[in-house]
Amino acid sequence: MENVNLKQQIAIKQLLALKKLSSAHRLAADGWDEEWKILVATLMSARTTDKKTIPVAEGLFKKYSSIKKLSKVSPAAIAKLIRPVNFYKTKSRNISRLAKILVRDYCAKVPHDFEKLIELPGVGRKTANVFLAEVGHNTIGVDTHVTYCSRYLGWTKHAEQEKIEADLKSLFPQNYWGELNWILVRFGQTYTNRREKNEILDKIKQIK
C-alpha cells in the first residue's frame, strides 16, 4: 500500500474485509455479452433487486437480441416483458427512447463518456458510473448500499450522491474505484438483516 496515508490504508483494509464477508451474488450489470445489455439491465435495476432484474433482462434480451431490434419496439411491448421490475412503465419508455438514440446517434454503440451517458433517457449518475466501471473505467456508482456503508464506516458524512462519490474518490486510490460498488452492493445483499449488518459493520470499524 505504497503512497497511501494511514486513513486510506484503514479504509482499504475495511473494504477488503467486506469483500471477504460477501457472497458472490451476480449483480444486474454482470455477465452480459454486449454493452447495451449492461446499460439496459442496470437501468432496469433502479429501485428493483438484482435478483428480480436479471431474469427479466434475460427475457427481454432473448426476445430482442440486438439494440437495433429493441429500437423498433414500442414501449408497450417492452412493458409487457419487464412488468416485474418496479416503475416498469417509465423504464419501458426510457428503454425504447434510449435504444432509438443509440442506434440513431451512436451507431448502435454505448458511449463511454459520462456526460453523454447521463443525457440518455433513464440514465442517471449511478447508472452511468456502474456501466463505466463494468466496461473497465475507474468510476464509482453510488447507490443505497454504497451510501449506507460509507456513512456507517465514516468514509463520508454526506447524503448526496455526488458528494459521497467525491469523498470516496479522495479516500481510495483510483484502482479501487471500479470495485467499490460491487463490493458494497454484494455485502448489502448478503446481509439483508439490518441488525446483523450493523453488527458486522461495527466490527469492520475496529480495523486499524
Description of the molecule:
The two termini are 14 Å apart. By secondary structure, the protein is mainly alpha-helical. The protein is built from twelve helices and no strands. The protein is elongated. It has helices spanning 6-21, 35-44, 50-63, 67-71, 75-82, 88-105, 114-117, 125-134, 144-152, 161-171, 177-190, 194-205.
Concise structural overview:
With 208 residues, the chain is mostly helical.
Keywords:
Endonuclease III, domain 1, elongated, 208 residues, Endonuclease Iii, domain 2, single chain, mainly alpha
General shape? elongated
Portion of residues within helices: 55-70%
Q: In total, how many domains does the architecture comprise?
A: 2
Number of helices: 12
Q: Calculate the terminal CA-CA distance, rounded to whole Å.
A: 14 Å
Secondary-structure element series = HHHHHHHHHHHH
CATH topology of the largest domain: Endonuclease III, domain 1
CATH architecture of the largest domain: Orthogonal Bundle
CATH superfamily annotation of the largest domain: Hypothetical protein, domain 2
**Mean model confidence by pLDDT:** 95
Rounded Rg? 18 Å
What is the count of β-strands? 0
The CATH class of the largest domain, by name, is: Mainly Alpha
Structural class computed from helices and strand pairing: mainly alpha
The biggest beta sheet reads: none
